[in-house]
Every structure is written in structure tokens, then in C-alpha cells.
Amino acid sequence: MKGDYQELVDEISGLLGAPATLENRDFGLVAFGAHDSDDDTAMDPVRTRSILTRRSTPAVRAWFENFGITHATGPVRIPAAPEAGVNRDRICLPVRHRSVVLGYVWLLDADPAPTDRQLDAAMEVAARIGALLSDEARAGTDLSREFGAVITAARGWQREMAVAALGEALGPDAEGLHTVVCVTPWTQDPPSARTVPSTAALSGAPSADAAGTPALAALVRLRSPEVLDPALTAADRLR
Q: Which of 201, 196, 193 is nearest to 150 (CA)?
């Protein structure tokens, strides 16, 4: 599915003649267009950090949300603010599905500016991205539910049935190696699995102590039993 996002982001880049970046509604990086320009201002601190760290900071998120992007149904132009690390004007294309915002496509505002016709065409592509994000969110919800059932099921046939259902939800990934990472205490709602590297699903977990301290469990994909880096990275992200 990642390849689908990349193709759609590249399509928007082609329509508007500018490199595009796709982030989910939590400002986690999903895909970005190639930057092959000699214009160094196209890679300002905010865009560079988003690409290198795969997400924007809470301060950057709050700054952009002040322009009403969470409620917008069409392109939003955002002026440059060098003091915030935004060296160039931007265009934000809200990615929505059934009136729900699921992400944002970001582009640098060019001179000459894109025409209304170009922006309308780009918004049509953004709608296709929204449908993909919606499908993925539903699949992730199903996967997290099945994962939660596994870690709470009683031993015996109930656990076996839960594991079988999780394997079906994982599809071909069920053949791969996974491990479980638990973080405690955890007092928030589980984040999106997409925001945690190598993580297939997240779910609240039973308390491991007599005090009933809440915990969060992550189902993490491993490349091999000897390489635990993905699990350590996931744990660091969740701390």
C-alpha cells in the first residue's frame, strides 16, 4: 500500500510541478516526492525534519493547525514564517474521506502559482489518498482488535482461536517473525500503529502488577531473532 501512496503523491507533484509531501492527520510522514531542484529553499528546516524523522514536531503541528487545515475542504495557502522554520509559502491539500480529515498533502507555493484547475485536479487525487487511508485505518482497527484479543484471551482453545484470527487479519505478514513490546504505565489512548516504526498493531494490555497499572502492547515485526533493533526503536518511540 505504501507504493500506492507514493504513486499518488508523485501524481500530485506532476500536476502542480512541485515536490509534494503526504502526512497523516497526526503529522506522521507517509510519502514524499523527490526533490531534484537546485533551489535550496525547497528544503527548509520544517520539511527537512519531517522527512528525516518521519514526523513533524507538536509545535509545528499546532502552528499549521492555526490556519484551519483540520476543517478545510479545499486548498489552504500558508505564508512563510522563517522564525518557525517555514522559509517558503506552502499549499496544504486536506486529505478527507466522508468528511473526515485523514491527512494532508503539503507543497511549496510556486511562482507562478498553480491555477484553480490544477488545484482541483490535485484535490481529486487527494480524495483517492483519503479512500486509501480510510481503508488502511479500518484494517488497522481490525488488526488491533484481534491483537488485543490474543493478549487478553485465556489459555487453551480461546487463545488458539484468538491467535488464528490474528493470523488471518495479518494476512501474508503472519508468516513473518513478530515480538511483543509492552510499555507501562500507559494512560493515553493507543496511538496509530503507523506512527510507531515496524509496528503492526497496538492495544491496551492487562496490568502486570497488583496495582493495576495500565500498559500498552505493540506487535512489532522483526527481520530475524538476532536483530532486535525494531523492537527497541518501537519502545523508544512509545516512551
A: 201
Residue 7 pLDDT = 92
- Residue 177 has a CB neighbour count (10 Å cut-off) of 12
Distances (CA, A) of 66 to 59, 60, 102, 106, 182: 11, 10, 17, 15, 35
| Contact (CB, 8 A) for 153 and 162 | yes
What are 78's strand-pairing partners? 90
Q: Collect all residues with Cβ–Cβ distance below 8 Å to 104 and sequence separation of at least 6.
A: 22, 23, 25, 27, 64, 69, 92, 93, 94, 95
Of 41, 47, 35, nearest in space to 10 by CA: 35
Phi, psi torsion values for 7, nearest 5 degrees:
-65, -40
pLDDT, block means (10 residues), the chain with 239 residues: 80 90 87 62 56 66 89 91 75 91 88 90 95 79 84 87 86 88 86 82 79 86 90 88
Question: 183, 216 in Cβ contact below 8 A?
Answer: yes
Do residues 182 and 151 make contact, with C-beta atoms less than 8 angstroms apart? Answer: no
Q: Do the beta carbons of residue 218 and residue 211 sit within 8 Å?
A: no
Let me know the angle formed at the C-alpha of 129 by 101 and 39, rounded to the nearest 5 degrees: 95
The whole-model pTM stands at: 0.62
Q: CA-CA distance, 84 to 16, in Å (whole number)?
A: 25
DSSP character for 187? -
Cell of 57: 514536531
CA distances for 60 relative to 26, 40, 204, angstroms:
11, 20, 29
DSSP 155: T
